[in-house]
Every structure is written in structure tokens, then in C-alpha cells.
Specification:
This protein is of the alpha+beta class and about 150 residues long. It is about 35% helix and about 35% strand. It has helices at about 5-15, 30-40, 85-110, and strands spanning about 25, 45-60, 65-75, 125-135, 135-150. Strands 1-2-3-5-4 form a five-stranded mixed beta sheet, sandwiched between helices.
Length: about 150
Amino acid sequence: MILVSELRRYVKEKEEQLAGVKSSFVVVEKDGLVNYLNKLSNKDNQILIAVMPDARSSGNEDNVKMNNSLGFFFLEKTEYSESVQDKWLDIFERTQETAIEFTRMLIDEKIYGACDFNQYLDPQNMSIQPETGLAGCNGWSVEFFFNTPL
């Protein structure tokens, strides 16, 4: 199972490594994400948020695996009064670049033997999707699945 302490440390490391990201945090659930985003201003852009994973077991008592679903968001607070189509698309372009860079980092860490939870990444089961109007923020979400030991 992915430990909260590992996730918190990992998110802070990625905040430092991803040039576009100014701040990061971990939330327990998506409702907590919305509450936090409501407090932000566009000066806080770009934001990396991780939602704590849920995990379901598979296998048997001799070989229990946890199938973890873990989501990350790359968002920018948007001032809609100033929004025109090109500026709107610029937000999605910037956050998409960061989401793709992050995904590549995670895959590289799996390939080159990182010792974190990313060694259990299931690369055949990932998604990257646009997020619009999430507490006044826009960008991309990335979902990964990890098959970890209990």
C-alpha cells in the first residue's frame, strides 16, 4: 500500500523538480481539494495536488497485493474576467506540459529502479484528462495505478 508519508515526501520532491510548479499539497479526498483551491489566488499558479490513494486487495493470503489508484492534479487558478480564448488555451498548454513531464518522470523512475512506490507503477493503466472549473481552477489530472505489496 502507498504510505501517506511516502506520498507527501514524493509530492514535495516533484514540486522542486518541476519548473512550472510553485506549490504542492496532498489532500485526503476531492472535497478537500475543492476547499483548498477556493482559498488560492492566481499568484499561486501552477499547483500540484495529490489525492491520497485508495487501495483494493487482490491475490490470496500467501500473496496479497494492493491495487492503488492515485490521482495528481496540475492546475492554475483562473481569473475568468480576464479570460479570452488564447489565454484559456495557454492555461491548458502549460499545465499539460507539466502533466506530461511528470508522467515521464514517473515512468523513468520505474524503469531506472527508484525505490519508492513508483517501482510498482502499472504503465498500461494511466490516464491524463483535462479539468475545467474546479473551484475556479483549470488544468489536467493524471491517474496512475500501482500494484504494491501490503
